[in-house]
Amino acid sequence: MNARLPLSTPGASAAVTVETAAEASLLLAQARNAAFAEVQCGRVGLGLGLLQHALELEPLSYELLSDMAALLLATGELSQARAYAEQALAQRPAHGASLYALGFAQSGLGERQAALATLSQLLREGAALSSLREEAPGLELVARTELARLQALEVPAQP
After folding, report:
1. Nearest-angstrom CA–CA distance, 57 and 144
2. Directed axis angle between helix 78-91 and helix 96-108, to 10°?
3. Fewer Cβ atoms within 10 Å of its own Cβ: the N or the C terminal residue of the chain?
4. Is the pLDDT confidence value at 37 over 80?
């Protein structure tokens, strides 16, 4: 790693900002990867702790917020998953993974109408669906299946 120049060095602030931003991005990616590695080893609490620590450093990172939502969803903490997904969407409204987590959290909480709206928004062609396809292409079919299930619940039974 290069030594950082003091911000007061003339002509160097742009380079320092770029270096610092690149370092921050790298640290963010490392924290996310470490968290998911812990979860894969069965240490969900440790994975959540790593993400929480990273969020203390980068509280407005939609990626970290979305990752927290995903892990909380996987552990059944639906209310917390919804809250983190909503925070991520406040930062990046068309983030597919966050809409996915929000829709499934809403569905699990019995908020059918909200889940229908969220999953419909996710699965419309556009930025959100493109985002989901880029980050987690396998989740599109899962989201479509859940949307169809929720829609079937809305149809009145035929006598």
Report:
1. 35
2. 150
3. C
4. yes
